[in-house]
Amino acid sequence: MRFLMKILAAFTLALAPLASYAVTCTSQAELGSLDRDALTAVTGRLASAVLAQNYALLQADLLPEEASAWDGIRAAAEQGMPLVKGGQFQVRNLYLLDATAQTAPETTQFFCSNSSGSLTVTITMNALPPGRYAVAIADAVGAPLAGQMGMVLAWDGAATTWKLAGLTLRPGVFDGHDGVWYWVRGREMAKADPWSAWYSYEAAHYLLLPVDFLSSPNLERLRKEQSDITPSAQNQMPLTLQTGDRTWKVEAVVLDPSLHEPDLGVVYQSTGLTDPAAQRTEATAVLSAFLKTQPGIRANFHGLWAVAELDGKRTPVMELPMAQIP
């Protein structure tokens, strides 16, 4: 999704010059009834289409400028279906964004404060064209995986209606535990098991919101607590592992939620094996060596992905639950 990818890239460009034009954000509680009702209605209609896998309706309501992004939006809806199955969407937050004063695409920050000014949510969008936008966050209440949806809407002046410009879906729980649980767990393990604590904070951040372009005081507090962990798992990369006479170089360890489980992806320098059986043997050896170095990870996460890196290209080899890793 071209539009969505621009938004998701915003955090990597957080230090870029921001738009100097006047932009505004109106939070849900401060919305006028006409705007609130209109945004709630379109969010509900599109959320229902996701639940029903009604691709015809989603495509019909797609912003014309994002027609080339349709395949990505359809894939997001299709792949997110297990997350929302059995639930009914309920709007959690709405934000109305006005960037009509801009004259060209800009990296734009919106500061969305409540009526008292005691809470400010920041929404950062990269290369945002002039216009009116809205962000809707909704929860699939009753779904076993507590699915949550982030939706970006854009005002289509020609059609005088709101259109779909971006869609993401995420689980709200791993193994029945939500983001707050993982946050508390990370805090509890920070001194005894820094590596498990670090990735528990990663899981908490992932589960608390379905989008990465929104920040709040709570999320900033979470990141601050995570950055205070010593030694930091992130700062110990690359990691050298030794197994007998073999040495493995791990380039990165990242949270991998692709199976809707709390997995970690272990990215290692491959020796260039091409035989599938040999690749799996190599991958198993790397994962086993990693867990021997960090035994706490075994007890606190579901499994590990082995990701081989060769000449700058990363290739997933396999995922193994912890019980299958020697």
TrEMBL record:
Signal peptide residue numbers: 1-22
Keywords for the protein's UniProt record, in alphabetical order: Signal
Domain of life: Bacteria
Protein name, entry field: Lipoprotein
Organism (species): Candidatus Sulfuritelmatomonas gaucii
